[in-house]
């Protein structure tokens, strides 16, 4: 018996030891498992050299799980994380609730004015900056130049959806496992709904009218979904209803997609010869439109924010400042080359000739980011902010539930009409429950 | 075993059993193979995969990216700790239920089991708030407590059914000899109960090792076990089969090896009173 | 048989386990019950207010609720069917003498040691993925169109994955039970001219009945709350095709952060689980008596 007890006490003592603070400050950083973030984990030596008194613990999670974990933690003031990686959707909502430490007092050398205005605007609430962007993105068309040529077509700088359809048909070779177009199909407000909402903007559709009435019964949404399903069923890869960003990236890198409309950050991955079998054959174009004045591109940034109430605010700030600084960009450039620098956050990067030289997609990225307008996302007026999302707390649940419906339509379980009908119904229900509509 | 078995029949059974065994084991074998391939090779057709070069690349990457040994150690402490505490609480209870059964013993037992049917997602937020107030978030102690509680019913029940197999006459005899309750427990019962306790211990270490809901939701960095380690490889960018295979192999290997080595002990008590 | 003193001692020995479990049940349960009557969204702190039955009304009238209920039943029933039938067959096979018994047993029990998350990830990516998965490669080898398991048969695929994990458990218990069967009885039956089938149905199956009940009870406990497999493979979709009750509650309380709605769902699930529990306990209780 006594052996057991001793073992138990040992176990408890070990547990206690784990929580005992060391002389240095240890901060816990929750992050998403995207390439740029993982690259940073490999470059931490430089940070430790400059700040030997700070130690960083990483918690790397998949996007959906990350979002659930950090939201739960910040809302309950659990205090498990000192720095959180959050999106442009969370920052305004959290900032408004006082859940984030404002970053107004960053030093002069950080040069906050250098942050791209479109991105910075999304992170600011009442003139306070609540998070620092790590990378920013819009979406654009990535395509295989060789396949386009073989199909006898030429990609315009600013294609229309009709052209995309034509090109997808021409490039598809199912026997050879080349699919004309790869798009997101995995359900989730940040997965298929990011793409579809952005696409619907170019069709003139909107989530809500000015009275917060859901608009899925509109013709514009019907046209959006029908065209999307047409494209994917005829020219898309099998299993598309479970493909998100990462799955499509793997497909494109292994040469199985003719075109892929997705995040601009993907550009550096698909042109990287070590990971991509098609690195030297990729071309870029703006996201398609329908001649209505809006393009189907989104605006997103992954940002580092500090939850209010952390005991280690200073260390956390030091880290955030370092990770989003110009110096960090230079560090990545030095170690991994300019093409691998996290894009889309700083004006100076797009004025740097070395970067423009190394990154053929730089101008296209900047143009796409600047073309997005979170205040006026679509053709008609809307009561909300956000291009591919609606910045209300209920949206995560709503977006995902609607995404499930559209994903089911892609899998062929329901028709487009049924999916839209269910979407309309469940959105009405939720908005009623939340008290937006009576 | 006086059954006459022709060699021919034995050969047929052998082939069949091996085929089934290999089919069931194949997924594990396959990730083991993929973990030694490069990312580019890992997505190829099976023949190409087998023919391609072997490499430790993925293990190196995983090792570089995560602190495997800390996760591993957390898993060990949490699963072993919760199992030992669970046994400490369960052995007396099961003993009493088996040897001094009352009218309500069975009801208590069934009630205990029914607590295991509560959906954990339904009570996560309350537990999270509670743990925050008690300062137990992201501590191994917190996880030990939770896992002890969720596995306790299984431990009690397993021990109870095992103890019940122990013939009561032996205890009677011991009592006749004037053994006290304490002596009865330590000298008579314990040796007989060891196989059952060993088996319960093993099964619970396995269950605790593989528990993925609470361990993932109540930890961040410091106390995160291997279930959290694997979560960070679930859907990374680009090609990831080889890295995922390497991480999976590293996560399941310790428990798999332990299970294989102790399978005799595990099986011996894994009857839940089903064998008479 | 037992004395008064030993009864008191027994009570003392049981009480720590009972009290701990009681606490573990009552504290979160009462909090859940309380939350379920509040309008309580984590993202809107300070707005909590009493709403009566609203959360229950919305949860029970949610079209996804019926689907989830049905899926839960199918999932539990499907896995139970596959593992008990498959486990019995496998146990019968492994009870025969053959070369390499020890090694085959090791191979067969291996899946039981694999974490649910790992097994789901591996099946999803390395096997069922319609482009790079092994099944797709095999299909293409035979000139067939790869089948998209997780989109076309999401629930079936999940049942398959979960069954793979639980088959070893069932096999082990049933094999142990089979090995305790009196060989002489079997031989006597064989002498009397009973065929293999009737030997199985009249001697082996009754002997296995108790082991099968145990398998069903233990597995049901774990299968009612299957979660990781769904989260990793299908996220409950497409649509709600593979959403079970546990996953539905997860979506309510942790994706929408609607703690009130999620708690109402939790209470409903607890009530349903208890109905299943009572039903099962009746069954097993009778069997344990025997």
TrEMBL record, chain A:
Q: Which domain of life is it from?
A: Bacteria
Renumbered to this chain, the signal peptide range is 1-23
Q: Give the source species.
A: Salipiger mangrovisoli
The UniProt family comment states: Belongs to the bacterial solute-binding protein 1 family.
State what protein this is by name: Sugar ABC transporter substrate-binding protein
Q: Which InterPro entries match?
A: Bact_solute-bd_prot1, SBP
Q: Where in the cell is it found?
A: Periplasm
Q: Primary place of residence? A: periplasm
Q: Which terms are listed as keywords in the entry? A: Signal
CDD domains annotated for this entry? Answer: PBP2_TMBP_like
Q: Does the keyword NAD apply?
A: no
Automatic annotation (TrEMBL), chain B:
Pfam families linked to this entry: BPD_transp_1
Q: Where is the ABC transmembrane type-1 domain?
A: 72-262
Q: Where are the transmembrane segments?
A: 12-33, 72-96, 108-131, 143-163, 184-209, 240-261
Q: How does it sit in the membrane?
A: Multi-pass membrane protein
Listed InterPro entries: BP-dep_ABC_trans_perm (IPR050901), MetI-like (IPR000515), MetI-like_sf (IPR035906)
Q: Which family does it belong to?
A: Belongs to the binding-protein-dependent transport system permease family.
Q: What is this protein called?
A: Carbohydrate ABC transporter permease
Q: Which organism is it from?
A: Salipiger mangrovisoli
**Organism lineage:** Bacteria, Pseudomonadati, Pseudomonadota, Alphaproteobacteria, Rhodobacterales
UniProtKB/TrEMBL annotation, chain C:
Q: Which PROSITE patterns match?
A: ABC_TM1
Name of the protein described by the UniProt record = Sugar ABC transporter permease
The coiled-coil regions, if any, are: none
Sequence ranges assigned to domain ABC transmembrane type-1 in this UniProt record: 69-280
Top-level division of the source organism's lineage? Bacteria
Q: Which SUPFAM superfamilies match?
A: MetI-like
Annotated transmembrane regions: 12-37, 68-92, 104-123, 155-178, 208-228, 259-281
Into which family does the record put it? Belongs to the binding-protein-dependent transport system permease family.
Q: How does it sit in the membrane?
A: Multi-pass membrane protein
Q: Which Pfam families match?
A: BPD_transp_1
The protein's matches in CDD domains, at most eight in alphabetical order, are given as: TM_PBP2
